[in-house]
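--- STAGE predict ---
source: upstream dedup step, 1 unique chain passed
mode: sequence only
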Amino acid sequence: MNNNTLFEALSEPHRRTILDCLRTSERTVGELVAISSLSQPGVSKHLKILREAGLVSVRRDAQRHVYSLSAQPLKELDHWLEPYRLFWSDKLDALEKALDEDESL
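--- STAGE serialize ---
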């Protein structure tokens, strides 16, 4: 997975909202339209981008398309972020220590 494609897909707030909805259960396009403030074409556009980024999968159920979250790209992103998380963790620990020392004065 290309991280740029993933970041671009995740950068849009409506797409993050759609992913949040799919985190709890799979949903049809109609259900996502009802949950969001978007039109059906708008939701479909965002789902296409999420599908191309590998973040959602789709299956047909009769006449409906049912979407579900595909977590693998998020796991890859989490793995990529790990060294940066360690960097910030060390910085936050140092800040906490400095603040504790400042309070004790």
